[in-house]
Specification:
Layout: E1 8-16, E2 19-24, E3 29-33, H1 36-56, H2 62-68, H3 75-85, E4 103-110
Antiparallel strand pairs: 1-2, 1-4, 2-3
Organism: Candidatus Kaiserbacteria bacterium RIFCSPHIGHO2_02_FULL_49_16
Protein name: HicB-like antitoxin of toxin-antitoxin system domain-containing protein
């Protein structure tokens, strides 16, 4: 459970058609652009602003603030995250290259860093 003081969030950057998409799953933040490096930077900036804003909320109960830091991701992004981060130890017979090779980066980051 993420709180305004600590926790983690998942993020990924992937190709979708002609654009690159950056997603912070627990915050439902989505950034798009033509260059994955720019998308990565803009996603990080959006996350930092989001977390700073959540920390500034005063007069709300902790569970109300914490709920904005623990949103349910869109199913599309959750599925892509699972498929991008699952690894097989043994290849399947007749396997084909992964259709998720469009993933530029994916990871888990600490709220303390953001």
């Amino acid at each position: 459970m993420n709180t305004s003081k600590n926790g983690k969030y998942r993020w990924m950057i992937f190709k979708d058609g002609d654009s690159w998409v950056g997603v912070a799953l627990e915050f439902n933040i989505v950034v798009t652009g033509a260059d994955p490096r720019v998308v990565e930077f803009e996603l990080q900036e959006a996350v930092i602003g989001y977390i700073e804003s959540a920390k500034k909320l005063k007069g709300f109960r902790a569970n109300q603030v914490n709920s904005i830091l623990n949103q349910k991701p869109e199913d599309e992004y959750e599925k892509k995250w699972l498929q991008a981060t699952q690894t097989r130890t043994t290849p399947r017979k007749g396997s084909v290259p992964s259709p998720f090779s469009d993933i530029y980066k994916a990871g888990v980051s600490s709220l303390a860093i953001a």
